[in-house]
């Protein structure tokens, strides 16, 4: 009996031991699988990053070190990233187009020293363009290598109620527009989170606010994720499918063709406006070349920056149906409350000149390639307790508006 009573014990022990060994084996196998998978994933990411950096950082004729740490490469014009596009390979930048009638042309040389990298007086040689060098740290700050240089799917004014993107803008809609022009003052707003941004810009828009939205955008922005600091920077953007898969900032994909050797898109702007002090503003003009259909960008009073080829777009290959001016921020609701990221100066519109941000001399280009004052400029703020806008007109500034705000405050929790 003793023998028979004792036989189940080792059987149970053996069974438990086998189960334990199987469990350990499973854990080890899973661990080894993960360890194998992770290096493969990291290796693939590293390869993609190296390929991206090689594609963006072209051979340069000269390198300039900016006081803020940026490296500016003087890249031969025909080697810039835009000419990687299959429809542009082997081509060169086009000659400047006819400017819109009513455009007041002055000496563009006064506009050339608005960026930090030009403080020393250096510029890129003729036949080259200045390109801000992209490094690994820039790419690693993005959510992925694939999404580097692109906006997250942003909704414009009409859909912003359900979006983290908030606006305070002036806009015109209901006609055919062939360009837009305005002067806007530059600030250095505080941005709360690295994944947020604050910008002021012109939007040239066509298509619906669905997946076929076309936009051309230019202005200044503070974007820690994109640039690694909190400096306001001159930027451009474009998309043909509502920011889904097409388009990018600056020269970070095949798109915008730069023709200027003295302006670096993506480089820091200096000086900036100060509260109750000196105001520094920039003028931007975007217009459609009536002969070739390309959309050109001019800075200041005659300094051509470059152009977006018409074939990049669907609806904008014809004309714009809406033009928008103003500010935009991203609100990620840190700590569950509204962000404290500032728009513009960080002060509300009612504070006026020297304190609030502004757009002045707001104009559009009509079908006849003429610059005309905006008719029926409408203003709208998504969340006026956080950021607001107030419009007006006078004989000096033409159509204008003040806009901006601090974000989180007692009325904007």
Gist?
Keywords: Signal. Helices cover 15% and strands 30% of the residues.
The total tally of domains equals: 1
Determine Rg (CA atoms, Å).
26 Å
The percent of residues in helical segments reads 10-25%
Structural class by SSE content: alpha+beta
Mean pLDDT: 89
Extract low-pLDDT stretches: 1-16, 27-34
Our count of helices gives: 4
H and E string: HHEEEHEEEEHEEEEEEEEEEEE
Number of beta-strand segments: 19
State which percent range the strand residues make up: 25-35%
Report the span from N to C terminus.
79 Å
Shape: globular
Q: Report the sheet with the most strands, covering strand number, pairing sense and barrel closure.
A: 9 strands, antiparallel
Signal peptide: 1-29
Biased composition (Basic and acidic residues): 95-105
Domain Neprosin PEP catalytic: 159-413
Keywords: Signal
List its salient traits.
single chain; 413 residues; alpha+beta; seven-stranded antiparallel β-sheet; 15% helix; 30% strand; disordered N terminus; signal; Neprosin; Neprosin_propep; Glutamic_endopeptidase
Give the topology:
Layout: H1 2-6, H2 8-56, E1 62-65, E2 71-76, E3 128-132, H3 136-140, E4 165-177, E5 179-185, E6 198-206, E7 214-222, H4 224-227, E8 233-239, E9 248-249, E10 257-258, E11 281-288, E12 295-299, E13 303-308, E14 320-330, E15 357-365, E16 371-373, E17 378-381, E18 388-394, E19 398-404
Antiparallel strand pairs: 1-2, 2-3, 4-14, 4-17, 5-11, 5-15, 6-7, 6-14, 7-8, 8-9, 10-13, 11-12, 12-13, 15-16, 15-19, 18-19
